[in-house]
Amino acid sequence: xxxxxxxxxxxxxxxxxxxxxxxxxxxxxxxxxxxxxxxxxxxxxxxxx
Length: 49
Description:
It comes from Novosphingobium sediminis. Pfam families: FixS. With 49 residues, the protein is mostly helical. The protein has one domain. It has two helices and no strands. The longest helix has 26 residues. The protein is elongated. The termini are far apart.
C-alpha cells in the first residue's frame, strides 16, 4: 500500500513532464512541416562519382 502512495505521484509527475515536453516542442515549431520531411527523403542531392 505504501508503494502505491509513492508510485502514483511519480507516474503523475512523469506524465506532466511528458505533456510539458510535448507542448514545448509544439511551441518550438517541431511539428510545423510534417510533409517536408517525407518529401526530402525522396530527393537525391548526392552527386554520383
